[in-house]
Amino acid sequence: MLVAGSAVASRSDEPAPPPQSLTVHVKVVRVNVTKLKNLGFDWVRMVPGGRQTVPIELSSLFKKTEHAAEAAGFLQALEQHSLSETLAEPTLITLDGRPASLQVGNTEIDAFPIVLGDGRVRLECRLKIDNCLAEKGRAISLSSASNLQPGKTFVLVQTPISVQQSGKLTEYHLIVLAKVERSDELARKSDSSDLK
How far apart are alpha carbons 148 and 14 in whole angstroms? Predict the structure, then answer.
């Protein structure tokens, strides 16, 4: 009994490892779905006997996180042709298990990353963006919790939004991409900006 008790005591005397430093990259993009439709942009799928046009469903493109890097490239191409716009692209540095917050201009972000035993990072993220649409004073709040593989870009949230502009209804999709990197990974890489 005494030996077991002293073994426990010696384990508790060992210092806990320091928390890992984590860098959280977030990118918020607004896609103008109405412009895409007006330009004749549509999805086409092959069916027996030919092609079938299907409605624009950005949600299906951004649903699978394993295609997030391709989605980021697609969003960049849309932005080059004025069909989407990056609303915010903050980067936060925090420690494992410690929340981080940032407010810049019209954007507020709260991030809470936790390193899991399997090496993935659970990221809880809340965003609030004021005046991100044409309607003055309208704020959008988004939140998400996902288990992410460090170093890879993931789609955290995508949501459709409709706005009345000059008597016309305009449809948008807000898409939030995220990437978490551990300090040991950052030391091995010189450029961590593949969200662009």
Answer: 30
- The span from the CA of 120 to the CA of 114, in Å, is 9
Q: Give the distance from CA 137 to its chain's centroid.
A: 24
Q: What is the DSSP letter of 116?
A: -
Q: In percent, how much of the chain has pLDDT > 70?
A: 69
- Angstrom distances, CA of residue 103 to CA of 8, 118, 132: 45, 32, 14
Low-confidence ranges of the chain (pLDDT < 50): 1-10, 46, 190-193
Alpha helices in the chain (DSSP H): 2-13, 33-38, 58-61, 68-80, 183-188
User: How many other β-carbons are positioned within 10 Å of the β-carbon of residue 132?
Assistant: 22
Bridge partners (DSSP) of residue 84 are 31
Pairwise CA distance, residues 116 & 41, whole Å:
41
DSSP 19: P
Provide the sign of the torsion angle of the four alpha carbons 27, 158, 154, 46, taken in this order. Answer: negative
Q: Say how many CA atoms lie within 13 Å of 67 toward its Cβ.
A: 10
pLDDT score recorded for residue 80: 92
Q: Quote the pTM value.
A: 0.73
Could you give the CA distance from residue 158 to residue 161 in angstroms, rounded to a whole number? 10
pLDDT tens-place string over residues 67-103: 666 777 888 888 999 999 998 899 999 999 999 999 9
